[in-house]
Amino acid sequence: MGDVNSILTEAEAxxxxxxxxxxASPKELAKLAKRGLTRGQLVDGxxxxxxxxxxxxxxxxxDDVYDxxxxxxxxxxTPLLEKLVLFWHDHFATANAKVQNTRRMAxxxxxxxTMAKGDFGQFLKRINKDPAVMEFLDTLRNNAKTPNENYAxxxxxxxxxxxxxxxxxxxxxxxxxxxxxxxFSGWRLDDDGNAVFRESRHDFNADHPERGPKVIFxxxxxxxxxxxxxxxxxxxxxxxxxxxxxxxxxxxxxxxxTVGRRITRHLFDYxxxxxPSTALVDELLDASGFATTWNIGALVxxxxxxxxxxxxxxxxxxxxxKKSVKWPVDFVVGTLRLLRVAPKRRKWLGLAxxxxxxxxxxxxxxxxxxxDPPSVxxxxxxxxxxxxxxxxxxxxxxxxxxxxRAKGKQGFHPEKLVPLTLQTPDDIxxxxxxxxxxxxxxxxxxxxxxxxxxxxxxxxxxxDLTDAEVRNRKLHGLFALxxxxxxxxxx
Length: 491
Prior knowledge:
The protein is mostly helical. The protein has 24 helices and 4 strands.
């Protein structure tokens, strides 16, 4: 059993850098091992990041912003920030297909960066007034005459409470959606694109006495029969903050923090493995103090130092069952970083990849387009990432990168990653799989297949990697096979 003060093993450090970032090279892992860091110390270092916004030009279209984000992920020295931004981009899923505004999508990305490890309560209040969300979920079309329920519903269903609690009991009623929609009426954008409250569009109780007062959670949340009066501190712009304050105080059928449990579960799913027990969720919630402080960074640290997180590092062939499928963007960015391939924005063809002018195309084929999740529910995770078409797309990307022989950093040069003095298949497999961080994940049967490939079915006992033809024929191919393996597709 380990904890925050446990010294990281090599396997644990590799796993942590893979899940909280985009992987680490053998050299980076060796440096970490020399420092003898504890789990807590390394996580503290990963969380010690400052916000780095995307640079957006006045004439940039969304594809330009997308490419800049990919470039930032490829070069970042603070990978946990990018992984958290990806998480929140999915959690507060907003698609430009409806927003149709590059500036607003870039502004939202900046907000996700600013709040990535901060106060979740304040995060929700900022999301309420995010221009892209206001457009995407119809706050801009919410008025006193006909309150629009779209944002009110998604605020509770997806952003905070969830439809049901851990015991399967409903967390809210249709009436709560109606009253929250009324509270959110009247918010618009000014000429500069900033959220502004318009009293003339707001649903005031005096103007609509037939609707009654804006009271929520009269039958849910353990507030008692009187519920929460959203106009208790006065009507107007402040009502939307009153909604968030009530949501954060909401208690489920077990008397636990509904929001606390749900966000803890969702973050654990993302960083570790799917469907943790309620007991584990509560343990993490209590240890982090999240339901009191709403400190996202503290919750993330609690997850990343817990033994349950490191269960996912156990290889499948040794009984490991807690695995997660890599997101497409994680797969693409992690691969290029580990292989030291650094394509330049606007010059992706430096990879010598035919019929591709951007990495966006590969990600599209794999089922993920940043800034355009398929719905307000975000992307489906885990097994949903893998289909016959998307797996073929992953293999196509691997094939093209492994074959990219461009000069300089835009090409793949395995001779810079694997010592050319190695001769035996076992040693070469160890070195190549170590570069990709999966040496300990390969099963004996995996190794047999790779040995058979390198030795032409046993006909060749050793390989001369100093021979360019051998490298081109075997070393490039070995890396491709490793990246196509189940061990590399999974965390």
